[in-house]
Each structure stands twice: as C-alpha cells, then as structure tokens.
Amino acid sequence: MSIPTYGVQDIKKEIQHLSQEQVADLFLRLVRYKKENKELAAYLLFDADNEQAFIEKVKGEVGFMFSQLPSQSYLAAKYMRKILRLIAKYNKFIGSKQAEIELLINFCYNYLHYTDRRLSYKPLRLILTRQLEKIRGLIAKLHEDLQFDYTQDYNTLHAEAEKKLPWLYRNDLL
Fold first, then answer.
1. Residue 71 DSSP code
2. How far is CA 108 from the centre of its chain?
3. Which of 33, 58, 29, 32 is nearest to 43 (CA)?
4. CA distance readout (Å), 53 to 38, 101, 136
5. How far is CA 6 from the centre of its chain?
6. Which of 16, 41, 92, 98 is the most exposed place for a label (fewest CB within 10 A)?
7. C-alpha–C-alpha distance, residues 88 and 103, integer Å
8. Residues 74-96: tens digit of each pLDDT
C-alpha cells in the first residue's frame, strides 16, 4: 500500500472547492511545519509587492555577513558558501533572473572588498570564478535590452576583479 502523491494541478483544483476559511487554515498549517515555508509566506505576504526594497534588504544582510567574514581561508570559504545558500534561498522566493544577477553581482563586489587579495586557497578562489561564470550564464538568458545593461555591470565587475586579484585572468572567463 502506498500513499498517492498529487500534482500541483490536482491540488489547485481541490483548493478551488474550499472556502476561504479552509484555505487559510491549510495555509497556516503548512507554515507551521517548516522554517522555509514560513519565510516564503512572509515574503509573499509582506515583501513581494516591493521587490526592489527586498533586494536591498538582502544586499544589506549579505554585506553584514561579509563584514563578519573569518580571517582563516577554510572558515571564510565555509562562510561564503553559507552566504551563497542564503542568496539562493531568496532567489527562489523572488523567482526573477534580474534579481538573481543583482544579488550575485553584489556578492562578487563584497568578495572583492572583504577577502584577502593575496589569496592562495583554491576553494576560495573557485567561489568567485563560479559566481562570475554563473552571472555570465544568467545574463545570456535575459532579453537583449536587459542583457546590454547587465553585461556592462558584469564587465565593470570583472575589470575591477582583475585589478584587485592577480590570479584572475579575463581570458579564463570569456
């Protein structure tokens, strides 16, 4: 005996037959079980109407986390991965490629500002190069007008990274 699983369409049809009070009860019950469900519900209820303000809040939180970055390379890499998980979670909430690009560009600028430039710890280096590659890939998926704007931001970021980090070569990422 197995418990049947239902798809989103089935659930959507069933919800349409429920009263508003029953839907609210189901919603509150869902929110009660997982922290991420609660955070998503809070975003949808309070922050979804002003996406740009939410992005700025996330940027501020990321900046604060970078200011708390440990000096040891291993711990710094761990902490940066934690920051990236936070960014990924908020990107999932927002569901916008532009917001994801903005947050990742902000992450890279914070990386340049807060990390040691003489870095020899390879995992820490790879964090930046992977994010630069990810940004470039996301830009390619956007509309042409947005691609132009974000490509300029990306090129500025990359030029600044080349100046500050002797181990980063432009040809590696083009």
1. S
2. 12
3. 58
4. 20, 16, 24
5. 29
6. 16
7. 9
8. 999 999 999 999 999 999 999 99
Give me 170's structure tokens. Answer: 């432009």
The answer to whether 131 touches 107, Cβ cutoff 8 Å, is yes
- Cβ 83 vs Cβ 65: under 8 Å: yes
Question: What tokens were used for 156?
Answer: 């500025």
- Matching residue, tokens 């964090």: 127
Q: What is the pLDDT of residues 151-168, one digit of tens each?
A: 999 999 999 998 888 877
Query: By the 8 A CB rule, do 31 and 41 touch?
Result: yes
Side-chain half-sphere CA neighbours of 143 within 13 A? 4
Query: For residues 42-80, b (16+ Cβ closer than 10 Å) or e, as one string?
Result: ebeeebeeebeebbeebbeebeebbeebeeebeebbebb
CA 121 to chain centre: 24
